[in-house]
UniProtKB/TrEMBL annotation:
Source organism of the structure: Rhodanobacter fulvus Jip2
Regions crossing the membrane: 277-305, 325-348, 368-389
Entry annotated with the keyword GTP-binding: no
Keywords annotated in UniProt: Cell membrane, Membrane, Transmembrane, Transmembrane helix
Entry protein name: ABC transporter
Record's subcellular location: Cell membrane
Name of a matching Pfam family: FtsX
All residue ranges annotated as the ABC3 transporter permease C-terminal domain in the record: 286-394
Example of a GO cellular component annotation carried by this entry: plasma membrane
């Protein structure tokens, strides 16, 4: 029976360590603050032109048409928006302290205001700092690099890339600049939060690895809009924005294509639906394994208490206190569980390596092993507490009876 409990504890500990890690990976983007005006933001995407790309003038007119819709406070054409994973810009930046970080870039005029971002230092881009950014039909992009381009970063990036977080006015280098043409960025503003649109990378403190570039959407065959609206006109303004998009751009979109127009809050709920389902699955499996293990520990201890009733009575008659009997069973359980936990931590590491080989799973940090072990110790000691208390309550007179 002790060997069976050891195996149960080892299996439960191995599963628990990996599940704690996976749950943290799933929870991190779900709990990360978005930084945007959640209840006021409408996102428009899936706008692909059928033949010729939209010109910069047509994009500007589309922004103006949206701003004139009743209930709309502001609108910006953009490339890269939170909860719009179809338009990604990956960048690699290096700050003043030498740290190199991969980030997502958002492009568009007036995004600080449209998204409802909170500036904690510095300023927004000036009108004359914007340069056009275009996407042709095959998805390639390009612009003429300008030294020390202005950039707005998040508070988290400022803390990571610069000593003491003093990033305002400092320079960052672009690690994708292979031409050596001085393509770099000067920080002009810092926002409190801005969730990246690569949600799979929004873990381990990387959720806010996002920057805003002073790029205005020009000629493009792929078009997205961010629209900030009056939240009191929620349903009505959504229909008006959808109608304005269809009226202004519908004739030029690919046959059968329809722009997706929805609130940010709805997009976020849909994006995290699978994460929530995975969390419930992890919780169910872990709970089942832990319950079986706890029942096993309680059953083993209860069996030992029954078999040792006479022994316990003799010890009580010889002067053992209730706390001594209680301590005896707790220490005995700790020794058995400790062996299982040691095996379980080894199995957790081996199991993670096996999962890494067959699935896209990152390496299990060693710090999760002691946390899983601690949870198992607490649960096992709580499981043995009931039978141990019953054992400590055995009266000394039991020693005179025949068992």
């Amino acid at each position: 029976m002790p060997a069976l409990v050891v195996l149960q504890v080892a299996l439960a500990c191995a599963i628990l360590c990996n599940v704690l890690f996976l749950v943290q990976q799933k929870l991190a983007p779900l709990l990360a603050p978005s930084g945007v005006a959640t209840d006021e933001l409408i996102l428009v995407d899936r706008m692909d032109s059928q033949a010729q790309p939209w010109t910069a003038a047509e994009v500007r007119r589309g922004e103006q048409v949206l701003r004139e819709v009743p209930g709309v406070r502001d609108a910006s054409a953009a490339f890269g928006l939170p909860m719009v994973p179809g338009a990604l810009m990956d960048m690699a930046l290096q700050g003043g302290n030498g740290v190199k970080i991969g980030v997502n870039g958002y492009l568009g005029a007036g995004l600080v205001k449209t998204l409802g971002l909170q500036l904690v230092a510095g300023r927004d881009f000036l009108p004359d700092e914007y340069h056009d950014f275009g996407l042709d039909g095959d998805g390639s992009h390009g612009w003429d690099p300008v030294a020390q381009q202005p950039i707005i970063i998040t508070r988290a990036l400022a803390d990571q890339l610069f000593d003491d977080g003093h990033a305002l006015g400092k320079l960052m280098s672009d690690l994708h600049d292979n031409q050596g043409n001085g393509h770099g960025y000067r920080v002009v503003g810092i926002v409190r939060h801005l969730l990246r649109n690569q949600l799979g990378l929004a873990t381990d403190g990387r959720a806010d690895n996002t920057v805003l570039l002073a790029r205005r959407i020009g000629s493009t065959s792929i078009l997205n809009f961010a629209v900030r609206v009056d939240p009191s006109m929620h349903d009505a303004v959504l229909k008006r924005v959808a109608a304005a998009i269809q009226r202004e751009f519908g004739a030029r979109m690919k046959e059968g294509a329809t722009a997706r127009v929805s609130f940010y809050s709805e997009r976020r709920a849909q994006a995290f639906q699978r994460q929530r389902a995975a969390l419930w699955l992890f919780a169910g499996v872990t709970l089942a394994v832990v319950i079986v293990t706890v029942i096993g520990i309680m059953g083993l201890t209860g069996f030992w208490v029954q078999k040792r009733t006479r022994q316990i009575g003799i010890r009580r008659a010889l002067g053992a206190r209730k706390v001594d009997i209680l301590r005896y069973f707790l220490v005995e359980n700790l020794l058995i569980v400790g062996v299982g936990i040691a095996i379980g931590m080894l199995l957790a590491s081996l199991g993670n390596r096996l999962l890494m080989r067959h699935y896209e799973l990152v390496h299990l940090p060693w710090t999760y092993l002691p946390w899983g072990a601690l949870v198992m110790v607490i649960l096992s000691q709580l499981a043995v507490l009931g039978p141990a208390l019953r054992a400590s309550a055995v009266p000394p007179v039991v020693a005179t009876r025949s068992v």
